[in-house]
Amino acid sequence: IVVVKRGDKRHIASHVKMEYTQNKPFRSSGPMVLPQGQIATSEGPIGLGKIDHGVTENPYERRFSPYDFNGGTCVAIAGKDYAVIAADTRLSSGYEILSRNMSKLHKLTDKCILGSAGCKTDVDQLRSVLDIKMKVYQHNHQKTMSTPAVAQMLSNTLYYKRFFPYYAFNVFGGIDEEGRGAIYSYDAIGSFERTSVTATGSGQAYIIPLLDNIITHRNRTDEKRDLPKEEVVEIVKDAFLSCGERDIYTGDKLEIAVITKDGIEITTFDLKAD
Questions:
Q1: How buried is 101 (Cβ within 10 angstroms: 0-12 exposed, 13-18 middle, 19+ buried)?
Q2: Which residues does 94 contact at the CB level (< 8 Å), separation at least 6?
Q3: CB neighbours of 248 closer than 8 A, spacing ≥ 6?
Q4: Average pLDDT over residues 30-57
Q5: Best label site of 9, 93, 147, 215, fewest CB within 10 Å?
Q6: What pLDDT digit, counting tens, does each position of 55-79 carry?
Q7: Helices (H), 142-203
Q8: Contact yes or no for 252/89 (Cβ under 8 A)
Q9: How far apart are CA 167 and CA 86, in angstroms?
Q10: pTM score, two decimals?
């Protein structure tokens, strides 16, 4: 503490300047004039480039992601002469439900359907690209693309975008040229395989174990039997009901497509809405 006589303005000014240059906190009854590029804080004047935001003295890092995961679950099951593809209709972002009636199924031909979960904008873009390619094939060859050919085209389309992938996780299924059910499972960059059952999306981990046990009959000693499509539809309903209890991104309504040689039949089933 420096004690000065009243009226000794020169000594007071010198004292204030000394305190200011040492960056120590001080108080003055008059307005403070700071050099350009500095601000007053409770710790004294500091430069703008030295502000500590509470985490680091480095500048804030800004991030932007072009992707958003909008949730949902898709399931596909192949039978002897049919294919069943099902998906819920909830569209979410974080803890918000954006829509309760958004279909994740997309018809490509009268014998095949694409089911997609992931980022809604990327899913819409992928569907548009596939529709264009289907129309080009139809005009060039004057016939509809077969289900295995569409499966390969989907793989190629995803692979072309491997360096900036569609954030879409797909199941694809239908009836092949021999009338058998054909189901294909994909990753984000086009690797795929034909299988008898698959699932993707936010509820995949809850549904796959159930289907492995009931549909593919893994690790069971009783005799495996061919399930009719009506029974498979009921199994799918039970699977989604169970999934909806554990996965907040799956719910509202279930859309079920049964594909046979006679065409596509789509039914709906209500799930929990909370």
A1: exposed
A2: none
A3: 71, 92, 95
A4: 64
A5: 9
A6: 555 666 678 889 999 999 999 999 9
A7: 147-160
A8: yes
A9: 20
A10: 0.76
